[in-house]
């Protein structure tokens, strides 16, 4: 199945609120568990495509000595993220910024770790964004970039929607379905990794529907 890109930015309040209302808890907790297992418990991390900031909030609550710069290109997402971060009392640990992942305004080797969940499929020039992520991460820092795997057929994509989004609204289910069609295969991610400056990083299949680029702190 060919890749069908979706809008790069969730720039409407409806899309942002619908995404925020979807059930991400189990997936987000598993992501944070893996970040901690890879060694990121202190230092300054960059979260690319933070959305409603659910993951940095969970990570900051678990690791009080960590600081996270959480970025997104969607102003609507950042409005929700700002509300969530304030409600969680984590404004000292989490800094929110409106930034394009394809042109990160940070110096080389700025961050002790880099995390990103379910944003790569949104980016039309994903390779450019991934190279930027590699550039700003320190060579021995933690990396966890995770996203959906594009299935072989639209029917396979629909099967994942039926399995994991059965309680969501039709609009939320369409968002999820479109994300599968816009995602990359593991083979494509492996090919992109060869062009990125992420020494020691590897591509793994982390769930039945997710790939991850991972690197443990060293």
Write a brief caption for the model:
Helix content is 40%, strand content 22%.
Q: If you had to describe this structure to a student in words, what would you say it looks like?
A:
This protein is of the alpha/beta class and 218 residues long. It is 40% helix and 22% strand. It has a single domain (13-149, 184-215), classed as Vaccinia Virus protein VP39 (Rossmann fold), CATH 3.40.50. The chain has helices spanning 13-21, 25-37, 54-62, 75-87, 126-136, 154-164, 170-182, 186-193, and strands at 43-48, 66-72, 94-98, 111-117, 137-148, 202-205, 210-215. Helix 2 packs across helix 3 and helix 6 (154-164) packs across helix 7 (170-182). The longest helix is centred in the first third of the chain and has 13 residues, at 25-37. The model has no long low-confidence stretch (mean pLDDT 93).
Give the beta-strand count.
Answer: 7
Q: Residue-averaged pLDDT, rounded?
A: 93
**CATH homologous superfamily title:** Vaccinia Virus protein VP39
DSSP helical segment count: 8
Tally of separate domains: 1
Please state roughly what percent of the residues sit in beta strands, choosing from under 5%, 5-15%, 15-25%, 25-35%, 35-45% or over 45%: 15-25%
Side by side, the strands of the main sheet go 3-2-1-4-5-7-6
**Major sheet attributes:** 7 strands, mixed
- Annotated CATH architecture: 3-Layer(aba) Sandwich
Which segments are poorly predicted (pLDDT under 50) over 5 or more consecutive residues?
Answer: none
Rg of Cα set: 16 Å
């Amino acid at each position: 199945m060919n890749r069908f890109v979706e809008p790069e930015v969730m720039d409407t309040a409806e899309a942002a609120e619908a995404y925020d209302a979807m059930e991400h808890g189990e997936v987000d907790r598993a992501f944070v568990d893996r970040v901690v297992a890879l060694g990121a418990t202190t230092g300054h991390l960059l979260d690319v495509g933070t959305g409603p900031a659910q993951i940095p909030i969970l990570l900051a609550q678990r690791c009080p000595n960590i600081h996270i710069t959480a970025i997104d290109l969607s102003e609507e997402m950042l409005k929700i993220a700002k509300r969530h971060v304030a409600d969680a009392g984590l404004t000292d640990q989490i800094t929110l910024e409106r930034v394009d992942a394809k042109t990160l305004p940070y110096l080389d080797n700025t961050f002790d770790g880099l995390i990103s969940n379910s944003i790569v499929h949104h980016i039309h020039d994903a390779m450019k964004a991934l190279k930027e992520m590699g550039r700003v991460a320190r060579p021995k820092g933690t990396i966890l970039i995770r996203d959906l795997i594009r299935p072989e057929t639209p029917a396979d994509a629909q099967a994942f929607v039926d399995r994991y989004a059965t309680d969501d609204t039709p609009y939320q289910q369409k968002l999820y379905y479109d994300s599968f069609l816009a995602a990359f295969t593991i083979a494509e991610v492996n090919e992109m990794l060869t062009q990125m400056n992420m020494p020691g990083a590897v591509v793994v299949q982390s769930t039945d529907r997710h790939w991850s680029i991972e690197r443990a702190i060293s």
